[in-house]
Write a structure and sequence with these properties.
79 residues, EamA_dom, transmembrane helix, EamA family transporter, 2 domains, mainly alpha, transmembrane, membrane
């Protein structure tokens, strides 16, 4: 494995480890709802980051899926 690949993988390992640490910490603090909402919201953020940074275009069915996911997150947040 090239050193550049190793650094990328090591960085990804650190980031995912921090992610899991904070998730488990939040559950331990009685913040399960807030921690879960972070996981529910992330796919929506990833879609928009893909549109911004990679110029990805969404079709009608994909926009429908994003809308349903956003509606579900809103329902869980305020419902």
């Amino acid at each position: 494995m090239a050193s550049r690949q190793f650094l990328i993988l090591a960085g990804a390992a650190v980031v995912i480890s921090c992610n899991w640490f904070w998730f488990i910490w939040a559950i331990g603090q009685g913040r399960a709802t807030e921690a879960s909402l972070g996981y529910f919201i992330f796919p929506l953020v990833a879609v928009h980051l893909g549109r911004i940074f990679f110029g990805e275009r969404l079709g009608a069915l994909q926009w429908t899926a994003v809308g349903l996911a956003a509606g579900a997150v809103a329902l869980l947040t305020w419902g």
